[in-house]
Amino acid sequence: VQLQASGGGLVQPGGSLRLSCTASGFTKDPYAIGWFRQAPGKEREGVSCLAWNDGRTFYEDSVKGRFTLSRNKAENTIYLQMNNLRPDDTAVYYCATGYCIASTQVMIPSTSWGQGTLVTVSS
Predict the structure, then answer these.
(1) Which phi-psi region, left, alpha or beta, contains residue 9 (left: φ > 0; alpha: ψ -120 to 50)?
(2) Helix, strand or coil for residue 89?
(3) 30: Cβ–Cβ under 8 A, 6 or more apart, which residues?
(4) What is the pLDDT of residues 10-21, one digit of tens each?
(5) 8 A C-beta contact, residue 91 and residue 119
(6) What is the rounded distance in angstroms from the CA atom of residue 96 to the CA atom of residue 118?
(7) Residue pLDDT, tens place only, 24-55
(8) What gap in Å lies between CA 42 and CA 2, rounded to an integer?
């Protein structure tokens, strides 16, 4: 399985960005695809997860109401729309396959990861 992420960049506080992640090489549908992020000096954390069979979404508490995860199932692509971005959203964002869980952890990753895409929120 290959995951191709894109869409990072520099944005001012309060601005928006949309990340994309396209998956290929599946022999069967994944259980879930989602996003992790890792800020400088911090541990990696789950941001959002989409359960592939029914489209349910899960979010880390700090992004609820600001980030929206959606998908184009036909194109095996997920989109993370990030609005009202804050400086503490600055991180490298990674898409990954795995399993969504209804906890602060949000997602348990499996073995497939996309390359990171840097999101910088700064004035």
Answers:
(1) left
(2) helix
(3) 1, 23, 52, 97, 98, 110, 112
(4) 999 999 999 999
(5) yes
(6) 15
(7) 988 888 899 999 999 999 999 999 999 999 99
(8) 26
Give mean pLDDT, residues 65-69.
98
- Alpha-carbon distance 32 to 10, whole Å? 28
Q: Looking up tokens 């499996």, which residue turns up?
A: 110
Residue whose entry in the numeric block shows the structure tokens 């997860």: 49
CA nearest neighbour of 119 among 79, 89, 84: 89
Give the three-state DSSP class for 34. strand
Strands 17-24, 2-6: pairing is antiparallel
Rounded to a whole number, what is the distance in angstroms from the first to the last CA of the chain?
A: 37
